[in-house]
Amino acid sequence: MKVKNLINSILLGEEDEKGLKLYYKTDIFIQDFPEEEEEEEPEAPVTAQEPAPAAQPAGLPPDIESTEESGNLLAEDIYKVKTEGEEVLPKEEADNIQTLEDLVDYVSDLKENGKPVMSEVAKEIVLTLAGLGQDALDDLVNEGDKVIVDIDYGTDIEDSIGLRVNKVPGSNSISISMKKNSKIIPGNFDLASFNRQLVFFRNSLFGA
Predict the structure, then answer these.
(1) Does any domain span residue 4?
(2) Any idea what the Cα angle at residue 4 is, between residues 195 and 111, rounded to 5°?
(3) Which domain holds residue 25?
(4) pTM metric for this prediction
(5) Residue pLDDT tens, the chain, 208 long
(6) Is residue 140 part of a domain?
(7) Is 195 among the domain residues?
(8) Is residue 69 part of a domain?
(9) Who's near 35: CB < 8 A, 6+ residues apart?
(10) Cα separation, 142 vs 3, whole angstroms
């Protein structure tokens, strides 16, 4: 128990509610534009000569395709969010977080101003970097995208396990690092160690 919590409990007669804390920070800009496919012009079949098209009435320009773009297209194909927050998970909810997938699922369900703090694409990027995703990174993230995800989880920020995903615009490099007590640990991300720490925190709530 932290000193501050111990003082509150003994001197002030306050009893901490059992639970775990989640700290998150996201700064995400993902463009999800579909790739343009070149259309092959079909070969004209050999047919009888067709009559020439009717002439345009004088003074009217030839037909042209509309260049207007849907005003909602850009909004739908770009996900941009910047959030920072802290959540206290009651014992019942913390009981269900035992793996990285559980933790990322929980974070992706959080919303600020009605918008998820982490999109489904960003969630898949995190899982793929950790070795759990189903898609290739090249299919999820573009050079111009920005994906910064910071998550810490435990009894307190100074007693926590966490991760940081870092991808800046203009770079093809993207990385995932493991954190301990809010500090980045050198070396590769260790999924098994991460999950063991989550289970440790979960068990601490039940005296296991």
Answers:
(1) no
(2) 50
(3) 15-31+76-204
(4) 0.72
(5) 344 444 443 443 344 557 899 999 999 999 865 544 445 555 555 555 555 555 555 554 444 333 333 333 344 578 999 999 999 999 999 999 999 999 999 999 999 888 899 989 999 999 999 999 878 898 899 999 999 999 999 999 999 999 999 999 999 999 999 999 999 999 999 999 999 999 999 999 987 5
(6) yes
(7) yes
(8) no
(9) none
(10) 46
